[in-house]
Design a protein that fits this description.
- By secondary structure, the protein is an alpha/beta fold.
- The protein folds into four domains: about 40 residues, no CATH class; about 150 residues, Alpha-D-Glucose-1,6-Bisphosphate, Chain A, domain 3 (3-Layer(aba) Sandwich); about 240 residues, Alpha-D-Glucose-1,6-Bisphosphate, subunit A, domain 3 (Alpha-D-Glucose-1,6-Bisphosphate, Chain A, domain 3, 3-Layer(aba) Sandwich), CATH 3.40.120.10; about 120 residues, TATA-Binding Protein, CATH 3.30.310.
- It is built from 17 helices and 24 strands.
- The protein is globular and about 75 Å long.
- Belongs to the phosphohexose mutase family.
């Protein structure tokens, strides 16, 4: 047993902590040294999506003390930054175990520090929290959620005045503040007079804004048959109402998954990226001959969209396909009104390069940032004179306009229906629209491999894999030479042919990207919120006709298979 871990754990036996916590820690010290190590070997850290982890006692867990320390530090920081203001924060929570009670604890700590709190009366989608920060004129916002993680997880996302998640320099400054205080400094004594419950009024404002940004007077809404599942999450509180008000009256909800439930009893993982999660919805779609399926994750920021392919079979689009379809649709809408050329779309370094091709074709800018929608929100903040059209990332997230500064499955679900209704009304389909885009802009094919490595040993394995990729870089992949390597940890891009290097002008991140002579792209990135290392593959070619689709797709799939086998990831 690491003596420093035991020493840290013993500090949780003091009067600072409640009896239940002290008893559990004492039992761990006495009987379970391995579990004690896992819970106390480090402090839970902020990642790309804030703080996320397994619930339980310990410094490496989500509990009232780790979140209380965050909130106390954030209170201190807000008072330093806004010394003359009446500080206001908005707080929301999802369907997870303890989300409501943790949201109340966070509210109590803020109020104990004299801060005005707007707490949602019931669970709400994460994008509504982002919207409410600006709508209510708050200095920051918090949402208690672990997105699509397993049931034992929870999390703490922090939003700033613009409604976007924390970015530099605020994130580093708040982390410094967290590290400077002790658990004994947390003020838990609530001032109820400073806590205001919010609900219907904000819902109405959010729904109105979603309809304004996500609907386009599309024909054929009454003929589109949709199956929708909230996967036991928060979107059931908003999405059906948004679609109903937009005129989609053929909405069929998967009733078995409509009740919010932190156990997510009908799925292995409440993640719409996984086809298994949408099994029930896809089955219902076949029973009623639906045109499309929409499924959202527990906090309603990600959405999965399934449509019928050329053979009439319902298939799940990947995040890159959904993103380019939505972006192209929005660009066409803006083009009709008149693009000026100063507009921009947003994407991320591990998402499809097809976004760049779209931007070039429409004569607008595509800004590419690190993984996570906080960086797309920062693009909007940093470029206030450039109109933002929309943006996304491969992990099933999209943002329509800038009224929400995070991925928004509510408005994106409406947009998906608008696209499908328009295509059906014109005698086509979303899948045919996608194939035509491959003809017009190039056929880009992507795949993600995600390897789970849990615990201390898992983290060490992930670190070793990244070290190996850096110290022994690939020379050739899939029969094509590596021509460029981008290392976002060192902020150095290297041209392999000339040996020239250049600086990557984005914040440092543990990401490595290889580019090949034939236009393929391979990225490696440890997850910032899960015990995983992710590998992203993108290949492309030109295609002349829809008749070539099947053979071209198979060729690209085989190419990705070859690369994966060569990297020994199969």
């Amino acid at each position: 047993m690491n003596t420093s871990v035991t020493t840290i754990a013993q500090t949780w036996l003091t009067d600072t902590f409640d009896n239940e916590t002290r008893n559990e820690v004492a039992q761990l010290i006495a009987n379970n040294p391995q579990e004690l190590q896992e819970r106390f070997y480090k402090n839970l850290e902020f990642g790309t999506g804030g703080m996320r982890g397994i619930m339980g006692v310990g410094t490496n867990r989500i509990n009232k003390y780790t979140l209380g320390r965050n909130t106390q530090s954030l209170s201190n920081y807000l008072k330093k930054v806004y010394p003359q203001d009446t500080i206001k924060v908005a707080i929301a929570y999802d369907c997870r175990h303890n989300s409501q009670s943790l949201a109340q604890i966070v509210s109590d700590v803020f109020s104990a520090n004299g801060i005005q709190v707007y707490l949602f009366e019931q669970l709400r989608p994460t994008p509504e929290l982002s919207f409410s920060v600006k709508h209510l004129g708050c200095h920051c916002g918090i949402v208690l959620t672990a997105s699509h993680n397993p049931p034992e997880y929870n999390g703490y996302k922090v939003y700033w005045t613009d409604g976007g998640q924390l970015v530099p320099p605020q994130d580093a400054e708040i982390i410094q503040e967290i590290e400077s205080i002790d658990f004994s400094d947390i003020k838990f004594e609530s001032q109820p007079s400073l806590i205001t419950l919010i609900g219907q009024e904000v819902d109405e404002a959010f729904i109105t804004a979603s309809l304004k940004n996500g609907s386009f007077n599309t024909a054929g809404r009454e003929n589109l048959k949709i199956v929708f599942t909230s996967l036991h999450g928060t979107s059931i509180t908003i999405i059906p109402e948004v679609l109903k008000r937009a005129g989609y009256d053929q909405l069929h909800i998967v009733s078995e998954q409509a009740t919010p439930d932190g156990n997510f009893p009908t799925v292995k993982s409440p993640n719409p990226e996984e086809p298994e999660a949408l099994t029930m919805a896809l089955s219902q779609a076949e029973e009623i001959n639906a045109d499309m399926v929409i499924g959202t994750d527990p906090d309603s920021d990600r959405l999965g969209v399934a449509v019928r392919n050329l053979e009439g079979k319902m298939i799940l689009l990947n995040g890159n396909q959904t993103m380019v379809l939505m972006t192209n649709f929005l660009l066409n809408q803006w083009k009709t009104k008149g693009l000026k050329g100063n507009e921009f779309i947003g994407s991320t370094i591990v998402s499809t390069p097809m976004m760049l091709s779209l931007a070039e074709a429409y004569g607008i800018d595509c800004k590419v940032g690190l993984t996570g929608f906080k960086w797309i929100a920062k693009m909007i903040k940093d470029h206030p004179h450039q109109p933002f059209i929309g943006g996304g990332e491969e992990s099933f997230g999209f943002m329509v306009g800038d009224f929400v500064r995070d991925k928004d499955a509510v408005t994106a679900s409406l947009l998906a229906c608008e696209m499908a209704a328009q295509a059906k009304a014109s005698g086509s389909s979303l899948y045919e629209t996608l194939i035509q885009m491959y003809i017009d802009f190039g056929f880009y094919k992507e795949r993600l491999i995600s390897l789970t490595k849990k615990g201390i040993s898992g983290q060490e394995e992930i670190n070793h894999m990244m070290i190996q990729l850096r110290n022994n870089p690939l020379k050739e992949i899939g029969g094509s030479k590596i021509v460029r390597i981008e290392d976002y940890k060192s902020s150095i891009a290297t041209d392999i042919l000339s040996g020239a290097t250049s600086t990557i002008d984005v914040p440092k991140s543990n990401v490595l990207i290889y580019y090949t002579e034939d236009g393929s792209k391979i990225a490696a990135r440890p997850s910032g919120t899960e015990p995983k290392i992710k590998f992203y593959f993108s290949v492309n070619t030109q295609m002349k006709s829809i008749d070539d689709f099947a053979s071209t797709e198979q060729m690209l799939e085989t190419k990705i298979d070859t690369i994966i086998k060569q990297m020994k990831l199969d």
